[in-house]
Amino acid sequence: MSIMVLAEFSVKPEKFEEAWNIIKENLPDTLAWDGCHSLETFSHEEESKYIFVGKWESKKVYNEYLEWRSKTSAEIFAELGASADPLKVRYCEIKSL
Predict the structure, then answer these.
(1) 65-78, pLDDT tens digit by residue?
(2) What predicted TM-score, i.e. pTM, was given to this entire model?
């Protein structure tokens, strides 16, 4: 069953624009991941956050992606992140009428 994933990435305010450039460079890899059905990105400059809303095949598939992304982008997360754990992830069940 597909799920919606809401991921919120808090960045250092002085790194907000730099973060967007890095995100844009890396989004094609995310969209190409087997099991990623869609992804939208939103920004909230006042809170220095980027919000990702994605439809994924399953929580398991997203977690596999997240593990890969964490390994390949750990240095970037550390440099741009506003805290030691800058990524908050929520998994939402899709309810259709």
Answers:
(1) 999 998 888 788 77
(2) 0.88
